[in-house]
Amino acid sequence: MFKPSFVKPVLAALLAVLFTNCQSLDSVFREPAVSLRSVELANISFTGVQLLCKVNVENPNSFNIPFPQTDWEFFVNANSFVKGTVKNDQSLRPRRTTVVDVPVSFEYLEVFKTFSSLRGTGQADYRVALDMKFTFPVLGDMVLSLQHEGVFPVLQVPKLTLPSMKIDRLDFTRAELLFTVNVENPNPFDLPSPQMAYEYIVYRNSFITGSVENIPPLAADSVTPVAVRLAVNYADLYRFHSLVNSGEVLSLFSMRTDFSIPAFADTIFFTGDAGLLPLLKVPVISFAGIRARNVGLTAIDFDVIWEVENNNSFTMNVKDLFYNLAVNNSQWASGRIPGTPQIGPNRKTQIPLSITINTLSMVRDLTDIITRGASAAYSCNGNINLGAELSGLDDFNAPFNFSGSTALR
Q1: How far is CA 73 from CA 86, 113, 155, 167, in A?
Q2: Residue 333 lies in a domain
Q3: Rounded CA gap, 371 and 264, in Å?
Q4: 175, 267: one domain
Q5: In a shared domain, residues 227 and 146
Q6: Which of 220, 276, 320, 387 sits a CA distance of 20 to 30 A from 77?
Q7: Are residues 128 and 175 in the same domain?
Q8: Which residues contact 375 (CB under 8 A, 6 or more apart)?
Q9: Quick one: 295 and 378 in the same domain?
């Protein structure tokens, strides 16, 4: 309901004097009418809020009347917060309804300074009061009032979640870890890029620290994933001597986030269990000797033996092993080991390779060496490829070159 702020007792008399002499009714002054058309949340950001009030102003007269001056006052939870005035020097044309825009704006962060009780709430009640003052010659000022009530969203603290650690890549020298921190912005407007610093903790010690660069602004009503990649070098980890014989170690991940918004005076800080970090040991490859299985007049069968020491808590398998073997400066054999032998966890496994020599001159020489129990000089070189069913683990490739002497038994 719209009410004039006062009624002049002389209004009727003045009108009678002004509009006598048989003037038509159309020329008699009629009071303008105002009605609230809409109130919209025109703009909202972490710095400011703007409401746009649209008011219908009807001029029922046959002549122009002055444009009203609009005084507005904004209330938060029934408490006066901010005031303003909208002026316009134009006139309202006769027998028309004009839509008058009344922007109501205020600094968002000032709300929190004034009403500390709003922190942690989802929305706040508001009321906007409008006084539209018409100034007429002779008649003076006429004020028509109206108001509107509603709610506006209150700035919310973003939420951070930490998923489990993912091993992005793994070999026997280092582990590359991927952490994805999800930052949820529950506000209906964008937030600026936060400052994020992290700490990776292993064996109760701060192991890696750093900050996250190039974080995009946090989009309204959405979740922004922030990736943190870390490389853990085993050589650095094994400085903690108690870890040398461990197969895994519990790790922690902590993050400190600052959104650089005064309303969020408290920095968000959390520490979470990042999971078990596998501690890998480089497999040890050694040459375990040559053993004669069958000695005949025309052929000799040998086993050439490699030994693989797997000090890890998981089974490995030999994917490929190629070699060149020479004994007493004579090329005995070259080739690849057949099949995929399994190397059990935390154990040494011998891998025999059967070789048959049927060259008569070599058979005579080797038979003499074997029967005399003499040693033979050998050299063996090649490459071994080991794999394991461990997520993210790269195959282990190790070239080898062994030489020495061994008794051919």
Answers
A1: 11, 18, 22, 58
A2: yes
A3: 88
A4: yes
A5: no
A6: 220
A7: no
A8: 405, 406, 407, 408
A9: yes
Q: What is the pLDDT of residue 14?
A: 44
Contact by Cβ (8 Å): 74, 83? yes
Q: In what order do the strands lie in the sheet with 33-44?
A: 33-44, 48-59, 96-107
Residues 6+ apart with CB under 8 A from 316: 283, 308, 310, 342, 343, 386, 387, 388, 396
**What pLDDT does residue 10 have?**
42
CA separation for the pair 104, 38 (Å, rounded): 13
Close Cβ partners of 308 (under 8 Å, ≥ 6 residues apart): 283, 284, 285, 316, 318, 343, 348, 349, 351, 384, 386
Contact 35, 56 (CB under 8 A): yes
Instruction: Give me the pLDDT at residue 331, please.
Output: 81
CATH number at residue 265: 2.60.40.10
Residue 264: what pLDDT? 67
Q: What is the mean pLDDT of each run of 10 residues along the chain (409 residues)?
A: 41 43 58 93 81 94 92 92 90 93 87 76 88 88 93 84 81 90 88 90 89 91 92 89 83 87 70 84 85 77 86 88 84 80 90 79 70 77 87 84 78
Domain that holds residue 71: 11-153
Rounded-to-integer distance, Cα 219 and Cα 189, Å: 7
Residue type, 408: L
* CB atoms closer than 10 angstroms to residue 132: 23
Residue 5 maps to a domain: no
Give the end of a domain, one of 245, 278, 311.
Answer: 278
Nearest to 160 by CA among 191, 123, 204, 201: 191
Domain end residue (candidates: 153, 175, 193): 153
> Residue 362 is encoded by which pair of tokens?
């070599």
The DSSP bridge pattern shows strands 195-202 and 174-185 to be unpaired
The set of residues, in sequence order, having a beta carbon less than 8 Å from that of 94 and lying 6+ positions away, is 59, 61, 62, 63, 64
Confidence at residue 146, expressed as pLDDT on a 0 to 100 scale = 94
Nearest-angstrom CA–CA distance, 13 and 24? 17
Q: What's the total number of domains in the chain?
A: 3
